[in-house]
Amino acid sequence: MLTLPSILADSHARLVACSAPREESRAAFREQFGGNAYSSIEDLASDLDVEAVYIATPHQMHREHAEILAAGGKHILVEKPLAISMADADAIVAATERAGVTLITGPSHSFDQPIVAARRLIDEGKFGRVRMVHAFNYTDFLYRPRRPEELVTEQGGGVVFSQAVHQVDVVRLLMGGKAISVTAATGGWDEKRPTEGAYAALITFDGGRFANLVYSGYAHYDSDVLQDNVGELGTEKDPKNYGAARRALATVSSPEEEAALKSRRTFGAVETPPAAPYPEHFGPVIVSCDRADLRITAKAVEIWGDIDRETIKINADPAPRAEVLEALYHSIRNKKHPPQTGAWGAVSLEICHAILESARTQTHVMLRQ
C-alpha cells in the first residue's frame, strides 16, 4: 500500500496482476488497474505477463511465496525482513540463485533519499573513512493496530524484526564494510503487548568501527520533533495528533477487533495516499567520519567539518520509493545490483537475531563470517 504511489509513478513499471486473500482488494485492483487479480500465489507465478513481483505479505509467508515465485521465473522485491528464521532466509536466497532471478530486500529506509545522498558524499572521500554511526528513533510502533502474531517475538513480532532491520540496513549502508559482532539489550515493558518494544544495540564493524542503535516504540517521546516534525513517511505531523495511536487502540476490546482495525488500511479499504512533500526517514542519524560529522535529517544532510558547516538540502522525489524501484529495474535489465540483495537481507536478519540473542544471554554475539 505504501509503495503503490511510487510504482504508479515509475516509468519502468506497469501493474499487470496481483495476488490477495481479500476479495475486496482483488476487486479494487481490477477496477483501478484492469489487471488480473488472483487468490493464490501459484496463479500469479504462472502469469506470463508478470516479470517481477513485490512481496508485501506477513513475514512468515515470505519463504513460501518467494520459492513459488522464483520457480515461476519471477524477479522479486521482498519486504523486510527477508524472513523470520535464518533457515528461511537462506532458503529464499538459494531459491532465487537456482532460478537465476533477481532478489532485492526492500523497500527499507536504506533506500531513503537522505541516506543515499549521505552515502554518495562519503564515497567522494573528502571526509575520510566512516568511524561511527549513531541512529535512534522513538515512535508509537507498538501501539499501532497489530495482528496477534505481530505481538509474538517467535513469529516475527515486536520491534526487532520489523524496526531494527531498518536501522541495521541504514547503518550498514552508511558504514560500509562487514559487521563483526553485536552487544544489545531489549525492553518489553507492557504486559498487554508481550514482545520487545525497545532495544539498544552496539554493532562492531571491521577496522574497529562501530554503530550505536536505539529504538523505542512505546508511544511516548516522538523523535520526529528532531526531524522538523516530519514523520517517517515524509508527511508533516500535527502536534495535536500526539497520542493518536493509543487512543485508537483504546477503541478495540479484543485481538480480533484490533486485527480488523489494521485490515482497514489494506489496498481497497482506503484510498491510495498522495505523494509526501518530504523524503522518508527513520529517525535522526549522525555519521562520524575522520574529517566531518554528517547529521542526516528528513530534509537535508548537514556537514559539520573541521572548520566550516554546510547544509545540503534534499528535495523530495514525487515517487518517494523511486530508489528501490530504480534498483530493481537496473538489476533486472543491466545486471547492476544494489547492496540490498537477498544476501544483504540475510545478514541484516542475522544481526536482528543477534540483538535478541545478546539481550537474552547477556553476552557478546559474533556474526557468521
UniProtKB/TrEMBL annotation:
Domain Gfo/Idh/MocA-like oxidoreductase N-terminal: 10-105
Segments crossing the lipid bilayer: none
Record-annotated GFO/IDH/MocA-like oxidoreductase domain positions: 116-223
GO molecular function term, any single one: nucleotide binding
Pfam families named in the record: GFO_IDH_MocA, GFO_IDH_MocA_C3
Domain of life: Bacteria
Protein name per its UniProtKB record: Gfo/Idh/MocA family oxidoreductase
Originating organism: Marivibrio halodurans
